[in-house]
Write a structure and sequence with these properties.
In chain A, 23% of the residues lie in helices and 29% in strands. Chain A has 79 residues and is of the alpha+beta class. The mean pLDDT of chain A is 94. In chain B, the strands form two sheets. Chain B has an eight-stranded mixed sheet, with helices on both faces. In chain B, α15 links the parallel β12 and β13. Classes of the chains: A alpha+beta (79), B alpha/beta (355). Chain A: Pfam families: ThiS.
Chain lengths: 79, 355
């Protein structure tokens, strides 16, 4: 069983975490992941972004399956 | 032979697809970095009627990406200038020029005459405004946006069970949270690519050719040339956050909803001016042009937290800066310390004062 997850960050979130990809031990749920991210990167506390698990956007907490890819998706407004 | 021969012979598109484009109408909102390529390709493809809404004027810093404009167009309205260019180029498109910013006041009248809306605007309040108007009026919406080296594209409100912008971003962000092109810079080719993807989606929706990005959002990164596609799920909850009816839409203040700060135009600000209102320039020393007037308080944003007490006595405070972003940050900062004060930010800052 692969308990590592791949985190892919986009836009401003990638800047705040200093890169576009992280490989982390699976924290179990999206809420746990958010808490861990905010703890590691305090700049994320004020940031608004969505989570996609395996390329599906989720609006509420969810379990992160083993080996999942979790994308952190901030809004862009430029044009 | 028609000027559309190469797409009329295309399997799956054909004369039928062309006829659908010819019979359709598109409203493009914003003739900026996204709007320019969108317009170029929709007009070339032969969309029958194109409306263009933009109240902005051409500035020198636009020219690296707003490819419809040249140095001879500086200061001119973008909608009028762009349409004039196309009227010389093609004689088979019906144009509507709307030289105004899209707003809750004009949204319904402008949108009602079109089959499809394409959002090439550049700020969050307008993006939510355009989205809500399209949901309430049941118009499909091609969405695209950029941030520095990345872009995102989707198609909203396309038939039943279709996601919209609020399903992608249910929480309204403030402009002050996310820097814009003016702060981060942008290579002109990025909005060129995203605008082209938007034009492609628009053509798919109008002609019925291939599958548009319904309930999907496509991300593109220009540094890595990678794409990433995410599935969206329409939800009843996000629908709850929207105005329920066109009547409640009309009285929405989208800037206030996004920023939490009431924004004023310069003329509204001037009418407010009296001795009880603190009028504060939060630009750093040396920013041009300087503004001098009686009673003007100068507190650079970088120093605001140390000087908040200078505003303690004022019940109303009016902030401005160069472009209207830092003044929102200043207003939010002051509001946290003094939640009872009436605090405003001047929309567009000094840049909006020139015209």
């Amino acid at each position: 069983m692969n308990e590592v997850i791949l985190i892919k960050a986009f836009g401003m979130i990638a800047e705040k975490i200093g890169g576009s990809e992280l490989e982390w031990k699976n924290p179990g749920t999206l809420e746990a992941l958010r808490a861990k991210l905010e703890n590691e990167f305090p700049d994320l506390k004020a940031a608004k972004f969505g989570f996609a698990i395996n390329k599906k956007l989720l609006q509420s907490d969810a379990e992160i399956p083993a080996g999942a890819e979790v994308a952190l998706l901030p809004p862009f407004s430029g044009g | 032979m028609s000027r559309f021969d190469r797409q009329e012979i295309l399997p799956g598109f054909g004369k039928e697809g062309q006829q659908k484009l010819r019979n359709s109408s598109v409203l493009v909102i914003g003739a900026g970095g996204l709007g320019c390529p969108i317009l170029l390709y929709l007009a070339a493809a032969g969309v029958g009627k194109i409306g263009l809404a933009d109240g902005d004027t051409v500035a020198l810093s636009n020219l690296n990406r707003q490819v419809l404009f040249g140095v001879g167009d500086l200061g001119k309205n973008k909608a009028e200038t762009a349409v004039r260019y196309f009227q010389h180029k093609y004689d088979d498109i019906q144009w509507e020029i709307i030289p105004e910013f899209f707003s809750v006041e004009n949204a319904q009248e402008i949108i009602s005459g079109y089959d499809l809306v394409v959002d090439g605007t550049d700020n969050f309040p307008t993006r939510y405004l355009v989205n809500d108007a399209c949901v309430l009026m049941e118009k499909p919406l091609v969405f695209g946006a950029i941030y520095q080296h990345e872009g995102q594209v989707s198609v909203f409100n396309l038939g039943p069970n279709s996601a919209n912008y609020r399903d992608l971003y249910p929480k309204m962000p403030a402009a002050s949270e996310i820097p814009n092109c003016a702060d981060t810079g942008v290579l002109g080719v990025l909005p060129g690519i995203i605008g082209n993807l938007m034009a492609l989606e628009a053509i798919k929706v109008l002609s019925g050719f291939c599958k548009p990005l319904k309930n999907k959002v496509l991300f593109f990164n220009s540094l890595t040339a990678q794409t990433y596609e995410v599935e969206l799920v329409p939800s009843a909850e996000t629908r709850e956050a929207m105005p329920r009816s066109l009547a409640s839409f009309e009285i929405m203040d989208y800037e206030l909803a996004c920023e939490g700060i009431k924004q004023l135009t310069w003329s509204e600000a001037m009418r407010k001016m009296n001795s009880d209102v603190a009028f504060v320039d939060v630009r750093e020393p040396g920013e041009m042009p300087p503004l001098e007037c009686t009673g003007l308080i100068k507190i650079p944003l970088s120093n605001l937290s140390a000087q908040l007490d200078r505003l303690e006595e004022s019940e109303e405070v009016l902030f401005f800066c160069q472009s209207g972003i830092r003044s929102q940050q200043a207003a939010q900062q002051l509001q946290q310390t003094y939640p009872d004060k009436k605090i405003y930010s001047i929309r567009g800052g000094i840049n909006a004062l020139k015209t």
